[in-house]
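Structure ticket #2291
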Amino acid sequence: MRKGLRVTAAAVAMLAFLGAGCGSNNDEDSAATEAVAEIGEVRSLLQQARGEYSDGDAEAAEGTVGDAYLEHFEEVEEPLEEENEELMEELEVLISTTIRDRIKAGAPVAEVEGLIAQAQQMLDQAEDALSSATQ
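Resolution: structure written out below.
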């Protein structure tokens, strides 16, 4: 009887080990899914900032872009880095620094709109990369 218990315990341990491996993949899928949702928030805030800047409220626009980065894009960084590190780094600089700096400098509206459009296109690529990671 003891031998049977040892075999059963070994089998249970093996199944637990294999199940733990499956769980990590689910965690990665979950992180990628959450990152895609955060990309939606980043998009929305960038559009809001575009409107604020077009309306002449540079301070609000700069703050909104800052929120897009700090509150939402930072949640995208790690999962995106696993899929496309170069894209993640380019987006990080564009959102956290370039757009904000150009707003602070009083750049023409068309320039800031162009940078936001560029960020939106790159967010499309990020979303594609993260979505394919969950399949």
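Closing remark: The chain has one domain: 28-133.
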